[in-house]
Amino acid sequence: MIGMGKRLNEEKRLKVVKEAMAGVKVGVLARMYDVHPETVRSWIRDHRDSISPEEIPAADEHVQELQRLQEVEQRYQKAVKVLGEKELEIEILRELLKKQNPAYLKNLK
User: Residue 27 in 3-state DSSP?
Assistant: First the structure.
């Protein structure tokens, strides 16, 4: 079915749960594996009790990569927010200039 995300086998699901338990955010995992965040959360609920601490991946390269991805995403979101605020400021300044211009031009004469 379209829009249902990829069906992941049990092994993959457990891998996702372990990565979540290692500290990777649900949103990042959901995007990476192309599933809904709520799906990831339900897998965590279903499987977390069956995973022993030894099975949780240490900061191996894959988990480090996911954490880097997470940081980049956070920086990106922050940049988008700042950019949006700047664009809004520019828009406000343009509107102010439109209003101010007639008076500004009169003062020059």
Answer: helix
Sign of dihedral through CA atoms 93, 96, 98, 103? negative
- CB-based burial of residue 41 (10 Å sphere; 0-12 exposed, 13-18 middle, 19+ buried)? middle
The identity of residue 93, as a single letter, is L
Q: What is the DSSP string of 43-70?
A: HHHHHGGG--GGGS--S-HHHHHHHHHH
55-100: per-residue pLDDT in tens?
A: 877 666 777 787 788 888 889 999 999 999 999 999 999 988 888 6
Specify the pTM. Answer: 0.49
Mean pLDDT value of segment 33-47: 92
Using alpha carbons, select from 13, 19, 28 the residue that is nearest to residue 63.
Answer: 19
**Burial (CB count <10 Å: 0-12, 13-18, 19+), residue 98:** exposed
